[in-house]
Amino acid sequence: MFKLTIVTPEKRILVGQEVEEVTVPAFKGELNILPGHAPLITTLETGVMKWKLKGKEKQETAVISWGYCQVSPEGVNILANIADLPEEIDLEMTKAYLAESEKKVMNEVITDEDWTEFQREWARARAKIEVASQAKK
């Protein structure tokens, strides 16, 4: 077991909760963290984060939008720009936003900066749809 803390500039998702494992969307793919993991600091990409609380069978999830992950002997700290829990996600609104965004990018000339922002928002919307859909099951 180790402790997990997840915070954003606006809220605290978890603070020092005992967990069995954590999976985060790291820069080059998913990073699975188990007890005894080597210390590291890495950037996080937009995507689905998962963790299993001590004594629970079901994994908890959140959609994070960019951030940092610090693994130390004391635990794992996640500093995310944005974190959305399943109960905070409006599935229909997210699907509509995704469709509108895709239509806009297909029909307009956009700058490289706008393209980068679109990719980040597209990834976040897809992750939100995945998390919200799984939560309904």
From TrEMBL:
<comment type="similarity">
    <text>Belongs to the ATPase epsilon chain family.</text>
</comment>
<protein>
    <recommendedName>
        <fullName>ATP synthase epsilon chain</fullName>
    </recommendedName>
</protein>
<keyword id="KW-0375">Hydrogen ion transport</keyword>
<dbReference type="GO" id="GO:0005886">
    <property type="term" value="C:plasma membrane"/>
</dbReference>
<keyword id="KW-0066">ATP synthesis</keyword>
<dbReference type="InterPro" id="IPR001469">
    <property type="entry name" value="ATP_synth_F1_dsu/esu"/>
</dbReference>
<dbReference type="InterPro" id="IPR020546">
    <property type="entry name" value="ATP_synth_F1_dsu/esu_N"/>
</dbReference>
<dbReference type="InterPro" id="IPR036771">
    <property type="entry name" value="ATPsynth_dsu/esu_N"/>
</dbReference>
<dbReference type="GO" id="GO:0012505">
    <property type="term" value="C:endomembrane system"/>
</dbReference>
<feature type="domain" description="ATP synthase F1 complex delta/epsilon subunit N-terminal">
    <location>
        <begin position="2"/>
        <end position="82"/>
    </location>
</feature>
<dbReference type="GO" id="GO:0005524">
    <property type="term" value="F:ATP binding"/>
</dbReference>
<dbReference type="GO" id="GO:0045259">
    <property type="term" value="C:proton-transporting ATP synthase complex"/>
</dbReference>
<comment type="subunit">
    <text>F-type ATPases have 2 components, CF(1) - the catalytic core - and CF(0) - the membrane proton channel. CF(1) has five subunits: alpha(3), beta(3), gamma(1), delta(1), epsilon(1). CF(0) has three main subunits: a, b and c.</text>
</comment>
<keyword id="KW-0813">Transport</keyword>
<keyword id="KW-0406">Ion transport</keyword>
<keyword id="KW-0472">Membrane</keyword>
<comment type="function">
    <text>Produces ATP from ADP in the presence of a proton gradient across the membrane.</text>
</comment>
<dbReference type="GO" id="GO:0046933">
    <property type="term" value="F:proton-transporting ATP synthase activity, rotational mechanism"/>
</dbReference>
<keyword id="KW-0139">CF(1)</keyword>
<dbReference type="Pfam" id="PF02823">
    <property type="entry name" value="ATP-synt_DE_N"/>
</dbReference>
<keyword id="KW-1003">Cell membrane</keyword>
